[in-house]
Design brief:
This protein has 258 residues and is α+β, with helices and mostly antiparallel strands. It folds into 2 domains: 66 residues, Arc Repressor Mutant, subunit A; 175 residues, GAF domain (Beta-Lactamase, 2-Layer Sandwich), CATH 3.30.450.40. It contains 9 helices and 8 strands. A 6-stranded antiparallel sheet has the order 5-4-3-8-7-6. The longest helix is centred in the first third of the chain and has 19 residues. The chain starts with a helix and ends in a 9-residue tail after the last helix.
């Protein structure tokens, strides 16, 4: 294969991934025209890519609508099994979620967002806007996101603050770069991030670093409705549980938190 053919194949593969990324927000069905608009690719290219993905079993077409198939989960399942999520991560999260009496989620950086990779909750616990494994959340207005940034090099933090859109999700969302920088620095210094009502109205979230897992920094966090974390004793209790969970998640090949 010539260098030109190799580059062309790599480019086509990347475009195919862009098509699949259009479904990340939970869309139940997308048209080729919609995918073309979302990706900026011409309709002929999108049609070829979509038909290839249908033939490969990753998409199914119903009328004009395209839907993901369960096959898309197989690569994700491979990642989770290869990194011991079922055997080593999930039991720890389950045990500490029961002690917490709520939910605990584990997330890693995926470019300029946080990606949920594991989650456990007690019956009746609130789950943040129905997020599941594979869901993504922004870095700046969330406790998990700020803790991930606190574990990142200074230059990366500055880049995110400079280039990411500052979206006001609620009336309490902090969109001032200087203030956000101070909050992220505070999270790095104190070893935890706390965010009150900036991503979801009336919800307070708490997050701590785990360390490196599967070649990337991981954090765990929880969230509660109302003013539960306004109480010093309750905040200390939940923070203690998260910190002990983080220590339990570190094995011989996992580094200490940054």
């Amino acid at each position: 294969m010539s260098d030109t053919d190799e580059k062309k194949g790599a480019s086509t593969f990347a475009k195919g991934l862009r098509v699949l990324e259009c479904f990340e927000g939970g869309a139940r069905g997308l048209t080729m025209a919609g995918i073309s608009k979302a990706t900026g690719m011409d309709r002929a290219t999108v049609r070829r890519l979509c038909l290839t993905l249908v033939e490969s079993g990753y998409l199914v077409q119903s009328g004009h609508d395209l839907h993901l198939t369960p096959r898309i989960l197989a690569p994700a399942g491979g990642y989770l099994m290869a990194n011991d999520f079922g055997r080593a991560i999930q039991p720890v999260l389950t045990a500490f979620a029961q002690e917490l009496g709520g939910e605990i989620s584990m997330a890693v950086r995926d470019r300029d967002r946080a990606l949920y990779v594991a989650q456990s909750a007690t019956p009746g616990a609130r789950l943040s806007i129905g997020f599941v494994v594979g869901s993504t959340i922004p870095l700046l207005p969330t406790a998990i996101g700020r803790m991930l940034l606190a574990c990142s090099p200074r230059a990366d933090r500055e880049r995110v603050l400079r280039t990411r859109p500052h979206i006001r999700y609620t009336d309490a969302t902090d969109i001032d770069p200087a203030s956000l920088d101070a909050r992220i620095n505070a999270a790095a210094d104190q070893g935890y991030a706390i965010v009150r009502g900036e991503f979801e109205t009336g919800v307070t979230a708490l997050a701590v670093a785990v360390g490196n897992h599967a070649h990337t920094t991981a954090v765990i966090g929880t969230s509660v409705a109302g003013a539960a974390l306004a109480d010093d004793a309750e905040r200390a209790r939940m923070l203690d549980i998260l910190r002990r969970a983080a220590r339990s998640l570190r094995g011989p090949d996992r580094s200490a938190p940054l």
